[in-house]
Amino acid sequence: MKIAVCVSHVPDTAAKINVGADEKSIDKNGVSFIINPYDEYAVEEALKTKEALGGEVVVISLGGDEVKETIRKALAMGADSGVHLKKEGYFDSYATAKALAEELKAQNAEMVFFGKQSIDFDSGVVGQMVAEMLGYNSVSVVVDLKIEGNNIRAEREIEGGKEVVETTLPAVITAQKGLNEPRYASLRGIMQAKKKTIEEKEALTGDSRVELLKMRKPAPKAPGKILGSDASVVPELVRLLKEEAKVI
Amino acid sequence: MANKILVFVEQRNNEIKKSSLETVKAGAEFAKELNAEVEAVVVGGDIADFNSIAKYGVPKVTHIKNQDLNVYTSSGYAQVLSDFANETGADLLLFANSAMGRDLSPRVAVKVDAGIVADCVGFTFENGEVIATHPVYAGKALTDVKINSPKKIFTIRPNTFNLGDAADATAEVSVKEVDNVNTSVKVVDITRASDKLDVAEASIIVSGGRGMGGPENYAMLEELAGLLGGAVGASRAAVDAGWRPHSDQVGQTGKTVSPNLYIACGISGAIQHMAGMRTSKYIVAINKDPEAPIFTIADYGITGDLFEVVPALIEEIKKG
Fold first, then answer.
1. pLDDT, tens digit, 9 for 90 and up, residues B201-256
2. Positive or negative CA dihedral for B154, A15, B215, A155?
3. 3.40.190.10, 3.40.50.620, 1.20.1110.10, 2.40.370.10: CATH of B4-177
């Protein structure tokens, strides 16, 4: 089975984010980048699927040359080959989905994995859009997955519980933390990844529908009140919550 | 520009969700600002009372029915909603940014050929155009965006629009029976973690971090949250230690939340945590370490031992 996994290259969760001079992107100075944490679960699930059912795993990423680092990371975990869809600058969810769908069609991938959202633009919609563009089934925010023959049984997280979803291949699955424990890349894996091919292609995004007008930092919060250092100030806290904040 | 706004109202177990009523309220506000028509659509279920939708500003409701739509099916819901949007000529669709809204809205976007912005936390209106605010990097930065395609979809984060008072109004409901529902993706079972309120939707969150010391100590946070009608959240440290499930995690690799009140207990305030909750309307921090970064964004802080402060808080609230 041809299995694809789409990954993004994002700032580390510990990174401080500052807005760049263009007010439309972040200042990348001093920011370290990682594979999107949810995409690690996607890569792991793709590898497990290959181990169980056979086939090959192709890793696809969209962006500037720096995304190759993240493709290599997935190759080091055990994916077979990579595709880098080249595109610089801002593009929206629709454009991202379009470019990925075009490539997935060319790859003829039957099973496609995504992280449930990338932790940079945090939209969480690209996987489902790709599925719709390809006419595939999709289940998002998945924490448990079983594939038997053509049938899929997935558990997805919802508010206060889980939904058990049944569907069939071909399908797109977006991975949530809890789906599996991503493996570490072994030294051998890292060495082998250097020899694996990353094919470079122009990204066929089409036009973005969403225009980014401005990126800004949230307004700083006014310094709050330290009420005290022990339980004696609790009555004052409750009074403030009732009378000043009016939230309880 | 928009001429016709359609609000998707979500039902689960025949109950209309609060986050959907907030979206109804948003729809009414959009209609006023854009001088557009607005209507609401409910898919499936056996709803006893549609008037809550009218009470928050949208009297015109269509209920799309078929027995295959009573439980969620992303394929079926996307199909009937897109057909309905096309029939009515809706050019602006609103969804709550709930588990269902986020699963469904992107499929609808492709079907009706719309641009989409998910997880909006605010809107402004300029010359008939909608400017949406969408947090990025878990809220470490914000983007102001607009959609240039003729059709537009926005999903709205819970608690962005406060419900406020309900007006006295009656819904005008039309029932639309559909057939041949596509159930290629179908929910066959729902497992509930009791009837617990989810942190993503709660208007009050009591959250515990590493300072809680162990899973057993969350009982007092459960009690406090119960008294306040809120939910219990956790920091990544507490989830990674196995004390709490990931579904409770607040922060960059958990849930980003905007409750009216966030009470942080024993949470120091890692960047990734603060990014996920800083848009809370009021923040209370209880932490022994006066240098903890959480105090820089707290409205009210107590630099004391949470094992004394939290029980005292429970007692004080019980007094009423």
1. 999 999 999 999 999 999 999 999 999 999 999 999 999 999 999 999 999 999 99
2. positive
3. 3.40.50.620
Q: Is pLDDT of B194 > 70?
A: no
Instruction: Please state, in angstroms and rounded to a whole number, the distance separating the CA atoms of residues B63 and B172.
Output: 10
- Residues of chain B within CATH 3.40.50.1220 domain(s) are 204-318
B106-134 core/surface letters (b: 16 or more CB in 10 A; e: else): bbbbbbbebbbbbbbbbbeeeeeebbbbb
Q: Is B72 on the interface with A (CB under 8 A)?
A: yes
Length of chain B: 320
Q: What is the ipTM of this complex?
A: 0.95
**Does residue B288 register a pLDDT over 90?**
yes
pTM for this one?
Answer: 0.94
Which CATH fold would you assign to the domain A2-202?
Rossmann fold (3.40.50)
Which chain B residues are closer than 8 Å to A240 by Cβ?
300
- Among A154, A151, A156, which residue's Cα sits nearest to residue A170? A151
B282 reaches A (C-beta below 8 A): yes
The reported pLDDT for the residue numbered B48 is 82
The residue-averaged pLDDT of B161-166 equals 89
CB atoms near residue B318 (< 10 Å): 9
pLDDT score recorded for residue A197: 96
- Chain B residues whose CB is inside 8 A of the A233 CB are 302
Residues of chain B with CATH 3.40.50.620: 4-177
Look at B99 and A158 and tell me if their CB atoms are within 8 Å. Answer: yes
Among partner residues B188, B260, B317, which is closest to A164 by beta-carbon distance?
B188
State whether B261 and A141 contact (CB < 8 Å).
no
The CATH architecture one would assign to domain B204-318 is: 3-Layer(aba) Sandwich (3.40)
